[in-house]
Amino acid sequence: MYLNQTHFEKVEQTVYLRSHIVDFNEAFELINGLAIANMGRSLKKPEVAILEGTWHGFTYAQIANLSEYSANYLMRDVAPKLWTFLSNALGISIGKTNFRLVLDKAACKAGSQAVFNVPDAVKRLSVKPLGNMSVVSEIEGYPEELAALERWVLQDQCRLLSIYGLSGTGKTVLARRLVENVGTQFEQVIWQSSIPHIQQLIENLLGRKSHGLTVNYPDPVSTFLDILNRHSYLIVFDAVESILQPGELAGRYRSGYEDYGQLLQQVGELPHRSCLVMTGLENSPETARFSDQNSPIRTLHLKGFSEAAAAAILETEHLAYQDRWHDLICGYQGNPAALRIAAQTIRELFDGNIDAFLAQQSFVFGSINLQLKQSFDRVSRLEKDILFWLAGEDQPVSLATLQNEIPLVISPTEILEALESLLQRSLLETTQAIDGFLFLLQPLVKEYVVYQFIAQVCRGKPKEQQLSSQELGPVIELGLSTPKTARLSQWSQHQLEPGWQPMEFLFEESAKPARRLRSTYHLRDETIVKRFKSINLMGAKPGSAENIAENHTVALLVAVSQIANQTYQICVQVQPVGQTVTLPAGLRLRLLDEQSTV
After folding, report:
1. What number of other Cβ atoms are within 10 A of residue 39's Cβ?
2. CA dihedral (324, 327, 328, 334) positive or negative
3. Which of 315, 378, 480, 574 counts the highest number of beta carbons within 10 A?
4. What pTM was computed for the model?
């Protein structure tokens, strides 16, 4: 079914300020009640077809094309009787051209059951109950942010708002609070936890039910904006990432949802009477690009509760040792959901001892791991590579350092786009320096990325081939008279000689596994088979270049990847082990051929 846009807009713009009839469902119930009261029967299908088509401004020919009836039958037989009945029932001449206008005027003027002879026939819109979305007792962790949102909606009359941040930061709860506080200022509240295609969204707003006709809107974006202008809606898109494409840079829409880019931009730019609020793991490209304190488009980045609000959470969880709360809150960056999980774990597994929990040096576990996984699984391959590289840094780095040192063959533009995407996904932070911004990962994200990197480096072998710590074999001494040959060509089939240890043990033995990320950065490909051996350097010959003055054990790391039928790429490294973070002075690594030539 196609709208007669000119007629539709003319009528609606004339009466919307005083209209009580808000959608065809309500009009249908009204007129069907009149039919029952005056004729003793419900409306028939051809009558419903005419009413619904007329409601949307369609011609008789268009109504006929979308129904099982001919245009001649509808126009010459059904319509005259229908309009005569309605004129008599309402006491005013009514026809196809003035149907909506008369219905709205009658509803606005009368407001009584007598005119329509149907109980509750005329009614105003009210805020719809949100069902399970009703707010339970929550810590008021964002009082300033909530006040800002209310000011943006009521005073600044903003049309498009975005609330974004990592999982667990309280985006949905804050949006609920906003709806409770300002929802009564709108005719209706629509909460979309599952965001539909635009056509279905329009049907949801109109509250349409199937009465015999299926409406296909040729320009759904314009239709949606027209609805927002005729009525004041407060619409919430909860979890907007559901319509965005994972595995690509932030802001790419999923197939079938591409029109939302144009829709959101026009919702923000063009004047109307409604407000659209979005929550999500990432900021939408439209709000990220056009948001400004002087524009009707605003963004709010939730980074976590203040220390006072976070402390209130720990208090409600009955966690003792208040003098240690600060370290716990800092470790989780004030993330309310993560703090609740951690507090429960400390009570149940550590008998409330925060120090014992902090001694584990691990903030990411269980449900907290799953929360971060939601964001990490959405990033592109390039974004992951940048996160892995930054996780190996102890200090924030500049853009110039990142562009010059990251071992990736990519253009400066690609790096900038990836960094911007990570910022929109709350996985990257910036800090101000004298010569510009520096990039860093917050501790919670960094810990998650480190262990994701370690897991990726340590993969590339079947489960049954993993070795336990009791099967590691002896330490290899240099200078053995009978060296053991490692057939690296067989490693791709996971046929490994005894004594070659899995890579995870190299990371587990390290006090700071993040330090190893830089040296193994190029080994993150899961198709590469990686193993290491522990070597005691006291076996070196006295007086040689490899002579080391003290007893020192290092790890000889070998990585093999097959790049053709009989062609292999082999990487050899020597790394410190255990608590040591540097190699001994004077150590040299040489590769020899079968004739012992370097």
Report:
1. 11
2. positive
3. 378
4. 0.68
